[in-house]
Structures are given as structure tokens and as C-alpha cells.
Specification:
The structure holds two protein chains of two kinds. By secondary structure, chain A is mainly α. Classes of the chains: A mainly alpha, B mainly alpha.
């Protein structure tokens, strides 16, 4: 039905444009050059008034319909059913019956409620179509009546356009607010069940609590310190791989390489940056981890099959292009006079690089490294596939550790109840992740910006 | 007046100076060599990645097939209702015809395991398509079961002791007989692109994932392209410079660096729980990907708009165009190649994105391609993730093959972006 609504809007908008334009053409034929706006602008004005309100209406309707019908349904149930019982379960049972998925013989009340629900849904579908049609027709008639020789169609249309553009640029803000609000809301529900101090400073992470009474599972401990240390351990390994390789690559490209080498190496780094992380994850499982295990076995060291080392090294490969391209930018932004001065004094290129360019570019490079750390902390697929699931408090990169992102995925993937601390814990972890990466990004961008101002 | 003193002429060619110069040049060369080795290491890592994926994946592009004659006897299948026939018996009879000597029930079961588990359904579908074969025989080419496929491709070593491989000695003998009769063939694995997911690696394919990814990217494009361009045009061309627009700008830059999984949490909490949209739907996946791609598109569009020289705007304004007309008629079309390039690169990134799709349930096990935006489906990267988690040996090759297909799509998209940039971009 929503598809039909959108189709109606598209057709109505097109028709409105044609109508407005032909009206404009007729006005121009009688009044000629006295007309304020062009016929096409009249058409655009009518089309905008027909299309935009109808579109907003349909989107609002689609968002609200489910909630409103649920409320109506719960209100219509007899008090004996909603008392004490799990209302959410009841509603989903009614919906299942409505959709024809009947698992056990439903009670007559539920069948009645299901019929009501089906009835209301049919009404809602048709009501939406009718209201959309009415809206477009009314808008078409009213706005077409406004067209006249002195009507400022262009100015009016441009005002609508500006409004739309302002709305579009606010979408980014809405997204951020949505992220923060949803994370805060779900996390606050989590902290209602588990104290903040226990989450932030507890040393024991065993989130597999029983969902049913008789299920055998852990008791549920939500101390996130082992998860945080695991994340930091893998990120550290990654940065130990990525920073030297990325920085040295940038140094070579800036100072030594000729254009031909640069033209060959830069696309390779871009390819590295463009490979999806799920591919890196599979690479870690397929190639890197077994190699490390064999190597460790040859040395007589026990390497876990999903060691932090394997995940960290592959993540480091993923971060190399970020470090190298940001370091490249930072080194290139150093004014040529500094380099020329150093070379003119007789310094070799390596001395110029190490004693002049690197110190001058250090803030930019630091910014790049911080952005790399933020990437590594937020990276999900590599660690989901290659790192462990059990939170151990260790600094040994040969052991298996788990990370914030791994825990978010394992806690939320699969059918889960939305009230248990287990699923809500994922949002608390997400909140920590969001603010950690946000802080790193703000810090990095701040450093880079401050540094740019110094030379520009 | 200060006295100016000239230093004595220094002899730079003495041994101390020469040695020092030698040391400094050696240090210079050392740095150069270290730099080259860093680059070589990065290139080698990339090469290892691609080579190891290709080596493990190329086998999945062909599939071992066994040609079998199925006797469609009238006692098993009636001509009136071919869909309801006893095809299990048909398959059993066909195998009995091939190997009349096998009578032991256990051995017959082992014999049946040469063919894929879905053989009876494939025969049924073929008979339903052409009911005239009832009473006669039907020659079909059926995918071999995963162990036989692996044996044929040389992944399973037949010289291993019997208890260390997944095919028995008897099965190898049968395989050799079939091979000698010319019934074994390894054509291009068209099923990889035409089949949806399956529990059995030999008939699992990417069709559902490709369609799901296509729908999700379509939704992503329809939302993020107009919204992104409108936002960028407003911020670059119309917005007054004040604290409010500054906030929007900082916000967009930060949003571009938020980890993708956080967008998945947003989609789960808002789109699924608050709005009640269905789980695993490409619509929701596309909406989440659109929010992720939006900052990228805004940033590249602003860069492209900035690259259009101000003289274009001034010329348009000077002949009486309004600011909107100047932008819509002149600036935006000139910036379009850059915008399209950025959009394609943003979409390519969205195509490879996995983590947010996992959280909204696009990693479900679904055996048919989605018919619409609200049907449950997977996407290419999540399908790769599912296969990577499957224990069957055949799925290792399928995973690598899926990755190669994904990388193929990415290469095409990025190639298109590069082509657009080189073909249409103007330098002022």
C-alpha cells in the first residue's frame, strides 16, 4: 500500500507540474511580458505544494501507524487480559493470528482481537490512500487558483526549495541526536539493572544470563574492564603494525619516490583502503591465524587459534592506508622553504626528513595516528571473525581476547528479548564506543586544524 | 664597529670529513631502503591477501556434476500430477541402474550420498517442467555432493587413511567408475550466481545476496543522493556563516568517522524497535547504509561545488539569474562529475559494509531471493560472513568465491568512478 501511496504522489506531482505550467503558458499568452515568473516556475510551484506535504504526510503515517494501532489494540482488550500478563507477548500473538501463523488453538478473545486488528489495518491502508489523494487534489486546486500574472511563483518556489535544503542539512544533526538518544535511552535502562560502577570497573564479563528459568547459563556479570583491555590490546597490536609501515611509506613517497613510483604505489594503498573489512576478517581466519599458529608451534609457543596477534596484525594492514595518506598530507603541507633551507645547508635528504620535516609535520601525523586508533577501536568484522568471544583479562597478544564490537555483535545477533540486561548491555558498550571514538576524532581533527592554521 | 672575521678555509676532503660524509650518506640510503621495504611489505600483504583468496576460491567457480539417467516409471510418478510423485524412489532406482551390484541398504545410502541432497527435488522440478518424460527416462546433470566435489577437485587426498577423509573407499571406487564412464564433468558453476543460500555447499549460491544488496543499495542511493546533494548545496552556496552552520559542519565531519556498528545500533533501536519495520529487510539495511553514506556524499559534493570557479556564479547573477537559478542551472551541472564520482565511491563502501547489517538481522538463513524491499534477505558481505562461519569444507571455497565476486563488483564501481573523473572532470 505504501508503494501505491508513493506512486500516487509521483503521478500527482508530475500532473501538478504540467497543470501549473500550462496555466502559466495561458497567462503568458494573454498578458505577455508583464508576467512575473516563467510558466515552468508556476509549474514547479504547484508541483512542490502537491508533492511535499503529501510525502511528509505518508512518511509520518507510516512511522506512526504501527504504534497507534498497537495502542488501540491494547486499549480494546478486556482488563482481565492485560492485567499482569505480558502485554507485548499478547500483542505479538494477536499479530501472528492475524497473519495466519497459528501455533496453538487461540482463545476466543484473541481471535476477536485479531479480527479487530485485521479490520483496523485494512481501514488504515485505505485511509492513507484516500487522505493522500485528497491532500494532493486540494493542494492542486488551491495553488492553481493562486497563479496569476503578478504571482511571484519563482520566489515562492525558491523559498520551498531553501526550506527543503535546510531540512536535508539538518538530517545529519538528526542522525547524531538519534544515535545519542537511542544509545543513552537503552543504556540507561541497562544501568537501571546493573550499576554504572560495576559496568565500568568490574573485572568479570559473563553476559550469557539465562533467558528462561530452566536454562543453564552463567549468572551474568557485567564488568567491562576485560572487554576494554581486549580492545586496547588488539588496537595496540594494530597500531604497532600500521604506524611504522604507514609512516615509512609516506616518508618514502614524499622524499624519495619519483612520480612513476608514486603513481604505482598510491592506487595500491587505495585498494588496501577499499577492501571490505569482512574480507580482511576472512583473510585473518583463512591465512594469518593458521600461519601464526604453525610459527608459534615451531618455536614451542602456544598460540591461541583466535589470538589477539592475528586479529591485530590484519587490522593493522587495514589501517596502513589511513596512516600513510594522512602522514603524506601532513608532510606535504610543510612549507617548501623549510625543506629547501635544510637541503641548502648541506643536509642529506634523510637528515632533512628526520630533523626538519618530521618535527614540523608531527601534529598532523599524530592526528592521523589518533584517527587510525579510532578506526581500530570501532572496527568490527575483523575481530568478530578472528578474535575470541570470552573476555579474559590479559596483556598477552598470543591469547584470545574479546573486544567491545565483538561483544555488541554477539549480544545482539539472533533472536533476543529486548528487556534483558544481556541485550541492553550491548547499547551500554555502544555508548562507550561512540564517545571514545568521538573524543579521539575531535582530538585528532583539532590537532590537524590547529597545525594547518600555523602555516597557511 | 665590530670586527668581521672570516673562517679559515676548511679542507672537506680530509679523511675525517670523508668518513663522516660516508656515514651520513649511508644513513640516507638506510632510510631509503627502510622506506622501500615498508612499501614492499604493504604490497606483499595485499598480494598475499589476493593470492590466498584466489587460491582458495577459484575452485568454487566450477562445480563437479554427475550425469545420471533417471527412470521416470509410472508407478512412481503419475502423468496427471507429476509434482506429487515418489522421487526418492526415482533417485534410488536410477542409482540402482548405475550400480546394480549394490544391494546392502547401508551401501545404498552411501551411494546416494554421491549426489547432492536435493537431487529428488531437482528431478521433480525437471519432470514438472516437461511431464512428457513420465514413463520414459530423463537424463539430468546433477551437482555432486560436497565430499565428491572436493575429491574431484583434489582438495580431499584419496591416499589418506579412510578414517581421516570424508569419503569412504567404496565411494571413491564408485566415483572412479563414474569418471571412467564419462559421467563426471566440471562445468562453470552457474549455480553460484543463480541459486540462493543453502545448507549444502554444492548448491549454495549468491543470488539472494546479490538481489538483497541491490535492493539495499537502491534504497541507500534514493535516500542519500538527493538529501546529500541538497544539504551540500545549502551549506556551500546558501548558508550564512554562523554558529549554527558551523555546528552542522563539525557534526557531519564527526558523523563520517563514527564506527559503522554504531549506525547498526541506531537502526536496531529506531527503525526496528521504535518504527516497527521488519527485521532483515533490505529497506532497513538501505536506510542504515544511507545514513552512513550521507556524510561522505555531502563532503565530496561540497568539494566539487568548491572547485567550480566563482566567476561562473557571478556571470549568471550578472545576467539576472537568481541565486537558485545560478546554482541549479550552472554550478551544480558543472560539479556533477565530481558528485557522481563521490557517490559511486560512497556506494561502493556501503556495498562492502557488514557490521550494521548484522545488527538488523540481514545475516538470516534465507533460501530464496527477496521479492521486494520488505522481504527478509541477506546482502553480499553478510552472506560471506555466514559462509565463513559454516563448518562444511565446501563453504571455504564458496566464501572465497563470494569475496571474489564482491571484489569484482567493487572494482567495477571504482573503475566507473575513475572513468567518470577522468572523462568529465574539468580543471579551471
Amino acid at each position: 500500500m505504501a508503494g501505491y501511496a508513493f506512486l500516487i504522489i509521483i503521478l500527482a506531482t508530475t500532473a501538478a507540474y504540467v497543470v501549473g505550467r500550462s496555466t502559466g503558458t495561458r497567462i503568458r499568452a494573454t498578458h505577455g511580458a508583464k508576467m512575473h515568473s516563467l510558466p515552468g516556475q508556476h509549474g514547479a510551484f504547484v508541483a512542490a505544494w502537491v508533492g511535499v506535504p503529501a510525502l511528509i504526510f505518508v512518511l509520518l503515517w507510516l512511522v506512526l501507524q504501527g504504534t497507534v494501532i498497537d495502542r488501540l489494540l491494547i486499549a480494546s482488550l478486556p482488563a482481565s487480559m492485560t492485567d499482569g500478563a505480558n502485554v507485548q507477548l499478547l500483542v505479538s500473538e494477536i499479530k501472528n493470528v492475524t497473519a495466519g501463523r497459528i501455533f496453538q488453538e487461540p482463545s476466543p478473545e484473541i481471535v476477536a482481537a485479531a479480527e479487530r486488528l485485521a479490520h483496523w489495518e485494512a481501514i488504515a491502508r485505505w485511509a492513507m490512500i484516500v487522505v493522500v489523494l485528497a491532500l494532493t487534489v486540494v493542494a492542486l486546486v488551491v495553488t492553481r487558483g493562486m497563479l496569476s500574472v503578478r504571482f511571484r511563483a519563482r520566489n515562492n518556489f525558491e523559498r520551498i526549495l531553501t526550506g527543503l535544503m535546510v531540512f536535508c542539512s539538518v538530517v545529519a544533526i538528526i542522525t547524531t541526536i538519534g544515535i545519542v538518544a537511542s544509545l543513552l535511552f537503552e543504556a540507561s535502562r541497562f544501568f537501571g539493572k546493573v550499576p554504572v560502577a560495576e559496568f565500568l570497573f568490574g573485572l568479570n564479563w559473563e553476559p550469557q544470563i539465562p533467558l528462561r528459568e530452566d536454562q543453564i547459563a552463567g549468572l551474568g556479570a557485567f564488568g567491562a574492564i576485560p572487554v576494554f583491555t581486549g580492545t586496547l590490546l588488539i588496537a595496540t597490536v594494530a597500531m604497532l603494525v600500521a604506524t611504522p609501515i604507514g609512516l615509512l611509506t609516506a616518508i618514502y613517497l614524499v622524499e624519495y619516490a619519483d612520480d612513476r613510483v608514486r603513481a604505482a604505489v598510491k592506487p595500491i594503498l587505495e585498494v588496501l583502503a577499499g577492501i571490505p573489512t569482512v574480507v580482511y576478517g576472512f583473510f585473518a581466519v583463512l591465512t594469518v591465524a593458521p600461519v601464526m599458529r604453525q610459527f608459534g608451534g615451531a618455536l614451542g609457543v602456544d598460540v591461541s587459534p583466535n589470538s589477539a596477534l592475528a586479529a591485530g596484525v590484519v587490522m593493522g594492514v587495514m589501517v596502513i592506508p589511513f596512516i600513510s595518506s594522512l602522514s603524506d598530507d601532513a608532510l606535504n603541507a610543510v612549507p617548501g622553504a623549510l625543506r629547501d633551507g635544510s637541503l641548502a645547508l648541506g643536509a642529506t635528504r634523510s637528515e632533512t626528513m628526520i630533523k626538519v620535516l618530521l618535527p614540523a609535520a608531527l601534529p598532523g601525523i599524530m592526528g592521523g595516528v589518533l584517527l587510525g586508533v579510532s578506526r581500530a577501536i570501532g572496527e568490527t568484522m575483523i575481530v568478530v571473525m578472528a578474535a575470541g568471544l570470552i573476555a579474559t583479562l590479559t596483556a598477552n597478544p598470543l591469547d584470545a581476547v574479546t573486544t567491545v564490537t565483538v561483544q555488541i555483535v554477539t549480544l545482539l545477533v539472533g533472536d533476543t528479548e529486548f528487556d534483558s540486561p544481556k541485550t541492553l548491555a550491548a547499547f551500554a558498550l555502544g555508548l562507550v564506543l561512540f564517545f571514545a571514538t568521538l573524543t579521539l576524532n575531535v582530538l585528532a581533527l583539532g590537532i590537524v586544524r590547529k597545525y594547518r592554521e600555523k602555516y597557511d | 664597529m665590530s670586527e668581521t672575521s672570516f673562517p679559515q678555509k676548511v679542507d672537506w676532503s680530509n679523511t675525517v670529513a670523508t668518513r663522516r660524509r660516508g656515514r651520513r650518506h649511508a644513513a640516507d640510503r638506510r632510510l631509503q631502503i627502510i622506506g622501500i621495504s615498508a612499501i614492499a611489505l604493504a604490497v606483499a600483504l595485499l598480494a598475499t591477501l589476493i593470492v590466498s583468496l584466489t587460491l582458495s576460491g577459484y575452485r568454487a567457480f566450477v562445480q563437479t556434476m554427475i550425469t545420471v539417467d533417471f527412470p521416470i516409471s509410472t508407478e512412481n510418478v503419475s502423468a496427471e500430477d507429476p509434482a506429487a510423485g515418489n522421487y526418492r524412489a526415482v533417485v534410488r532406482d536410477a542409482l540402482a541402474n548405475l550400480f546394480p551390484g549394490v544391494t546392502d541398504p547401508g551401501e545404498q545410502r552411501a551411494l546416494g550420498q554421491l549426489l547432492t541432497n536435493n537431487t529428488q527435488f531437482m528431478v521433480r522440478d525437471a519432470v514438472v517442467r516437461d511431464p512428457s518424460v513420465v514413463g520414459g527416462a530423463l537424463r539430468l546433470t546433477i551437482p555432486a555432493a560436497d565430499p565428491i566435489d572436493q575429491l574431484n577437485k583434489g582438495v580431499i587426498d584419496r591416499h589418506l587413511p579412510e578414517d581421516q577423509r570424508r569419503v569412504s573407499n567404496r565411494q571413491i571406487e564408485w566415483y572412479d567408475e563414474l569418471k571412467a564412464e564419462g559421467r563426471i564433468s566440471t562445468p562453470f558453476n552457474i549455480g553460484l550466481f543463480l541459486n540462493a543460500d543453502s545448507r549444502f555447499p554444492e548448491i549454495a549460491g549468491l543470488a539472494g545476496a546479490i538481489v538483497g544488496s541491490f535492493y539495499a543499495l537502491l534504497v541507500c542511493l534514493v535516500i542519500s543522493f538527493p538529501v546529500g546533494i541538497a544539504a551540500a548545496v545549502y551549506l556551500e552556496e546558501f548558508a550564512p556563516i554562523n554558529r549554527w552552520t558551523d555546528l552542522i559542519e563539525v557534526n557531519i565531519n564527526n558523523l563520517a568517522a563514527v564506527p559503522s556498528i554504531v549506525f547498526g545500533l541506531l537502526g536496531l533501536a529506531v527503525f526496528l524497535n521504535a518504527f516497527g519495520l521488519p527485521r532483515s529487510a533490505p529497506l532497513v539495511g538501505g536506510m542504515v547504509l544511507a545514513l552512513m553514506t550521507l556524510p561522505t556524499i555531502i563532503i565530496v559534493t561540497r568539494a566539487a561545488l568548491k572547485a567550480v570557479p566563482p566567476s561562473i556564479r557571478q556571470a549568471a547573477l550578472a545576467v539576472g539569474a537568481s541565486r537558485h537559478q545560478a546554482v541549479i542551472h550552472h554550478v551544480l551541472p558543472l560539479a556533477m562529475p565530481g558528485v557522481l564520482t563521490g557517490t559511486i565511491i560512497g556506494l561502493a563502501r556501503a556495498l562492502g559494509e557488514t557490521a550494521p547489517l548484522l545488527l538488523i538481522g540481514m545475516n538470516a538463513f534465507i533460501t530464496s531471493p527477496p521479492g521486494g524491499l520488505l522481504d527478509a534477505s541477506t546482502a553480499l558481505p553478510t552472506q560471506i560472513f555466514i559462509w565463513a562461519d559454516s563448518p562444511e569444507r565446501g563453504f571455504v571455497a564458496r566464501t572465497s568465491a563470494g569475496i571474489l565476486v564482491l571484489l569484482g563488483f567493487l572494482i567495477v564501481m571504482n573503475g566507473l568512478a575513475v572513468f567518470l573523473r577522468q572523462r568529465f572532470e574539468r580543471k579551471w
